[in-house]
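Give me structure tokens for this 78-residue protein.
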Amino acid sequence: MTLEILTPEKSLYHGESSSVTLPGVDGSFQLLNRHAPLISALAKGVIKYKVGSETRTLTIGGGFVECLKNNVIVLVEG
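Here you go.
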């Protein structure tokens, strides 16, 4: 799936990812390839996403995520 992580100032990541784990306001959840459409608010916490065999992390202050047609866009506060 294509993952894009954005702040109001810049793009933090844009590329392929096999999974992304996000800090939802009601608890952590994971998006995988071909996930059903989704829009959700994010809480302060850590995003974990897989690029190849590498797992990357990013600490956020909150935000929103949209998953549609195998594209995941994450809008975050630093």
